[in-house]
Amino acid sequence: MPEIVERNFRITVTQVQASGPSKSIEIxxxxxxxxxxxxxxxxxxxxxxxxxGGHRVVTIQGLHATPATANEIAGITxxxxxxxxxxxxxxxxxxxxxxxTWTPGAPIFVGSAGILTQSPSTVGPMRRVAWAISPTQINVxxxxxxxxx
Length: 149
Description:
Radius of gyration: 23 Å
Mean pLDDT: 81
């Protein structure tokens, strides 16, 4: 019967033969403990090229995104970061903030200075970056950039 030990990844497989002794094989990979929990969904890190606000849309260059830079979006920051610091950004999946008051089911767009908004720009580029799941939770899911007249 297989045995699995969570933190040491020890697996024991026993083969029982009809005649003769049983054979066991043990595979160990010691020291491979479970690491710290990562960010929800998919994420990456960018180096902040300016002081970045928390829960803001940022570009791959580490700047606050705008509708005009919608094609350069890296993700949404999980917290504020200073210049030169590493900023964790969510690229897909759930993100929650207790102070948000979104309309559930409605799309969320990138606004000026990386601000999340449910009011899309009416001229120039527009890009959906998330959907509101509840008043305080969004599902990060980038749509295509739409060029408007």
